Every structure is written in structure tokens, then in C-alpha cells.
Amino acid sequence: MPELPEVEVTRMGIASHLKDRRIVGVLVRDGRLRRPVNEDLAELLVGQRIQALERRGKYLLLHLDQGQLLLHLGMSGSLRVLPRHTPLRTHDHVDIYLDHDQVLRFHDPRRFGLVLWGSNWFADPLLAKLGPEPFDSCFNGAYLFRRSRGRQQPVKGFLMDNQTVVGVGNIYANESLFRSGIDPRRAAGRISLARYELLARTVVTVLQEAIAQGGTTLRDFTHPDGESGYFRLSLLAYGRAGQSCQYCGNCLREVRLAGRSTVYCPHCQH
DNA sequence: ACACGATCCTGACTGC
DNA sequence: TGCAGTCAGGATCGTG
Fold first, then answer.
1. Distance separating alpha carbons of residues A4 and A32, to the nearest angstrom
2. How confident is the model over A149-162, as a mean pLDDT?
3. Domain range A4-128, its CATH number among 3.30.160.20, 3.90.550.10, 3.20.190.10, 3.30.70.100
4. Which of the nucleotides in strand C have any atom less than 7 Å away from a protein CB atom?
């Protein structure tokens, strides 16, 4: 489900409900995630107060008095703040009970997500190797150009690599390359500085638009408040294989790149 | 170092 | 209706 915009929409939706709340209980119904949830999570968390909810790439960091709870939504995860006695759905794997009768509930059918306690996640290999945030000034065309020299990898895979830049998954990689007129199959090392400058600006614009529209709702992604994200209506490439290009009217084509569905316009993208 | 495929897991959907 | 096959927004690991 979530790329950077969906994670950021989640963060914005729940951060104010979490700030200064005290954790009064924890229930792990199924701790078998990408890595096992800490077995003693309740002992570790109960009594601590929540200071902030921060995002780094597609990771969320819940800052508590004595450390941080690292959260990742994987492909199918979601995180909501609910009244404590809200009925359970299947795959509601972790509940963190808060004062004021609320619960922070982690839901993840495919269990590719993470819920892990630690004291310094920024030093952990999971986060330490991440590339820049797309909204940071060091993410720009010159950076992409420099980093891509000599690389034969298709530019789409290069853009989705979270050591290049964090947060750009399959949907937004497709959209950014479409809007930039760059063929996703083109070798990353053979794209000009000028085109990378356009691509970097486009990535930022696409992600910002998606956040402003509440993210992209496919299948079950909804806001923390249950609303849908409307960026799906703005998708020009992703999910539109076989339909006509909004720019030139030709038929959009689909190929698989690094195992991921890739949609592009053979006429507009080079 | 680099690029790719397989893999973790469940659910939705397709076609027979 | 049922069953097999395919695919899905991520990230890591092993391979050549």
C-alpha cells in the first residue's frame, strides 16, 4: 500500500492524536512481521509518554521518553488511532493502548511491515543506508546525475532504490518518469543532467501533489480517519496500460522491470 | 560494485 | 462453486 505520500498522510493524520499521550498497555496478537516484534514490547513501552511521530523515508519513528518505536507499513500495512473498544478486524496485529481510552492499532495482512523497539534507529543499518529525503535540498538533478554515472540499470529501478532517494515506490516512479518524458527502461547512466533536473523536480511535485490529495487509495489504503486518498484520480500512467496517453493519445504499454509492472508511453517517453 | 530474480505473506481477481 | 494461477503499493538476500 504505502509509498512516501501514504506514510506521510498517515503521520499527519495521527501525530497530533499521539503527542503527549501516555502508553497504558500493549497487546501483540501476531508478532510475526518482517522481523519479529519484541517479545517484551509491553514491558518496554508501558508508562512511557509519546513525544513525537517522525517519518524517514517510508519508516515511521514513534519517539518515546526512552527510545523509539520503529514502524514500517510494508506493502499492506496501516496505522490508525481509534477509540479503545473499536471492534477488531482480521490482521489487527498490534494494539498500543493510550490514556484517554484510545488505541494506536497496527494492521497488516501481508505482514511485510515492522514494529520494533530500539534506542537509536538512525544508527541501525535499516536507516543508516537510506538515501536523501526527496524534499531535502540535496536531492536534485546534479545529485541524480552524479550518482547514476556508469550505471546500466534501468532508470526506474535506480529511482526506486532507497539508497538513491527514499520514498519513491512503483506508483510514483511510473508517474514521475511519465511526466518527465523519460523511458523507464533507459540506462540510468545515459541520461543527461538537464533531464535529471527535470526528473528531480517532477518527483518532488508528484509526491507533494499526492500528499495534498491524501495519497493514492488502491485496495484498502485509507486515511487514518477512514477517508480515501484521491491521488488515484491523478494517475496518468500507473494502472493505465492499454489505455490512451493523456498527452498524445497513443496506447500506453506495459513491461516488467526488476519484477515490477511498468507503464509508459512509447511516443512521449524516450 | 552492480543488476536481477527469488522470497517473505495474504487476499483479490481471472480463467477453466 | 471450486480450484489453480497470477498479481499486488516493499525490502532483503543470494546469485552470477
1. 24
2. 97
3. 3.20.190.10
4. 7-12
